[in-house]
Amino acid sequence: MSGADRSDGELRRQIADQMDARSAHVDFARALEGLAPELRGRRPEGCPHSPWEILEHLRLAQEDILEYSRDPDWVSPEWPAGYWPPSPEPPDEAAWEASVAAFRRDLEALRALVTDPANDLLAPFPWLEEGREGANLLREALLVGDHNAYHLGQLVDARRLLGAWPPA
């Protein structure tokens, strides 16, 4: 393996790890760890969103970025309604668990796209609409990392305000 191949592989790994907030931020698993079901739908005073709303927003936005990155026929949801759940409370435990599982599955799919050396990180997506010429896999991966870190921070703040941080 050449030095360039090693560098490319290391760069891809670091980008994938950044999407997980594995360095300087609380990661997804830690942000959700031990959150009592009765707190998942509560909007704490001073916080605009419940943990459920933040989780679903994370899932919906990440799904949109993933599908936009790999499916030329993908149609993004309407903004903002398509990126937030209709209620601050999860419908039930199964909805919460399904959202957590979907977030993890989609994050792994994005990590696989980024770490696959067959995917050019800088190549513009061939299906781009006018005005989106700069979109490529690197941009979308960095967007996921930034967006996830921001909203995981919101989730930690909501938990603090609910008296549920740090996890027991």
Structure description:
Helix content is 54%, strand content 0%. With 168 residues, it is mainly alpha-helical. The model has no long low-confidence stretch (mean pLDDT 93).
CA-CA gap between termini: 45 Å
Averaged pLDDT? 93
Level-2 CATH architecture: Up-down Bundle
Q: How many domain modules?
A: 1
> For the report, how would you describe the main beta sheet?
none
The CATH class designation is Mainly Alpha
- Structural class by secondary-structure content: mainly alpha
Which geometry do the CA atoms define?
globular
The portion of residues forming beta strands comes to under 5%
Low-confidence stretches: none
Secondary-structure element order, as H and E? HHHHH
Output the CATH topology: Four Helix Bundle (Hemerythrin (Met), subunit A)
Q: What is the number of beta strands?
A: 0
Radius of gyration: 17 Å
Share of helix among residues?
Answer: 40-55%
Relevant CATH superfamily: dinb family like domain
* Secondary structure tally, helices: 5
